[in-house]
Design a protein that fits this description.
Layout (H helix, E strand, L loop, with lengths): L2 H12 L11 H12 L2 H22 L3 H18 L1 H10 L7 H15 L4
Length: 119
């Protein structure tokens, strides 16, 4: 899945819970990374969200809005396990230009998180 799609899917999940977005920094992303990798339950929840994001993208391509909504609800439940820092980061990414300096610094951190799911 393309990184932009990951951002979009995860932002959809996090946005309803964390409505007040602030521009995230690379330090914010690193903090979230450390929180997730330090807790097996959070790592598993993140990886499950990652799988659901792939499924959401597929359901969206198939114009299956009911399936997308169902998957969003599952992802929202899992997202709560990751804590407010994760939600704030994902919500802040919604308006971030991925080509900006901050976007370019945050992108590898998010990619590193995804690699946790392929072990």
């Amino acid at each position: 899945m393309h990184l932009k799609s990951i951002f979009a899917a995860l932002v959809i999940v996090a946005a309803p819970v964390y409505a007040q977005a602030q521009k995230p920094t690379p330090a914010d992303a690193q903090k979230v990374f450390e929180i997730i990798i330090s807790d097996k339950t959070k790592t598993e929840a993140f990886c499950e969200i990652d799988k659901l994001a792939d499924q959401m993208e597929q359901a969206d391509q198939e114009n299956d809005s009911k399936k997308v909504e169902e998957l969003e609800l599952k992802a929202d439940e899992l997202q709560r396990k990751l804590g407010p820092e994760f939600g704030a980061l994902m919500n802040g990414l919604e308006d971030m230009d991925q080509n900006s300096e901050e976007g370019q610094q945050i992108s590898p951190i998010l990619k590193a998180l995804r690699t946790l799911c392929t072990r």
